[in-house]
Design brief:
The protein has a 5-stranded parallel sheet. Strands 2-3-4 form a 3-stranded antiparallel sheet, with no helix packed on it. Helix 2 runs parallel beside helix 5. The longest helix has 16 residues. It folds into 2 domains: about 45 residues; about 120 residues, Rossmann fold, CATH 3.40.50.1220. It has 5 helices and 10 strands. Bound molecules: flavin-adenine dinucleotide.
């Protein structure tokens, strides 16, 4: 579509803004393997076009007063047939909520220290009926499957509540979760960057704090 209207296209943006003076669209996305965030402008062409990474922006409120015209186009059958064939079905190894759709996520990072400690996170997730997320460090260490990875090279999530346990909050992790409505961070380093995006921060040992939090949630929620 961009080609047909002679526009450029910045794909997979993680942030959009408008320059109030020039009306240029400021299109931000990771570049150079995710090591920098680049802001791209297209000053010479109109329209300006960008696509946005799934879940980085909050859904707009439904506005029933808005109207639009639905144009029905008759398509020929050959346009509707797929060239994709299903060869076989491979079930995912771990059964869990799709983290990109979960309302609550409890995520663990290297600060959990060993794979067995993900059980502590899983217990809290069970009580909160939440999905389980992870940092790339935890995934790279084979503590948990890649499908749980949150961040630039994992999934982008926008839950109502994100609880980050033992996650430092490097930019690549924040790119995948900083639009969450409420962020709770538990980290024993008071200077960890995750606290810069956290709504509530708890400085301390996640392995001591999470079981207490789980017990309290159990009491309150009666689960
Ligand atoms: C191109 C590229 C893409 C990337 N994509 C991603 C991505 O998609 N997702 C992602 O997460 N990362 C990604 N990364 C990696 C990212 O830069 C970090 O290395 C990674 O997020 C660190 O994971 P972590 O926070 O679990 O580990 P660390 O940075 O090692 O942090 C561990 C944290 O745990 C705390 N801690 C330790 N013990 C405890 C305890 N007992 N209780 C509480 N806190 C404790 C420490 O204070 C520390 O803050 C990417 C990197 C690159 C270069």
């Amino acid at each position: 579509m961009a080609v047909s209207v002679n526009a450029g296209l910045t794909a997979d943006c993680t942030g959009l803004a408008i320059d109030p003076e020039t009306r240029n669209l400021l299109q931000t996305r990771p570049a150079f393997g995710g090591n920098i965030m680049a802001t791209i402008v297209t000053p010479d062409h109109r329209p300006q076009m960008a696509t946005v990474r799934h879940k980085v922006m909050k859904e707009a409120e439904v506005d029933p007063s808005r109207t639009g015209e639905v144009i029905r186009v008759a398509l020929t059958a050959d346009l509707l047939s797929s060239r994709t064939r299903r060869l076989r079905y491979v079930a995912e190894e771990t059964s869990t909520v799709n983290i990109a759709e979960a309302n609550i996520l409890v995520s663990g990072g290297r600060g959990l220290q060993k794979p067995e400690n993900f059980a502590v996170i899983a217990e809290l997730a069970k009580v909160l009926k939440a999905g389980i997320g992870a940092s790339r460090a935890a995934v790279d260490a084979n503590w948990i499957a890649y499908s749980h990875q949150v961040g630039q090279t994992g999934k982008t999530v926008c839950p109502k509540l994100y609880i980050a346990c033992g996650i430092s909050g490097q930019i690549q992790h924040l790119a995948g979760m900083s639009s969450a409505e409420t962020i709770v961070a538990i980290n024993r380093d008071a200077d960890a960057p995750i606290f810069s995006v956290a709504t509530y921060g708890v400085v301390g040992d996640a392995l001591e704090i999470i079981p207490k939090l789980t017990a309290e949630c159990k009491k309150i929620l009666g689960r």
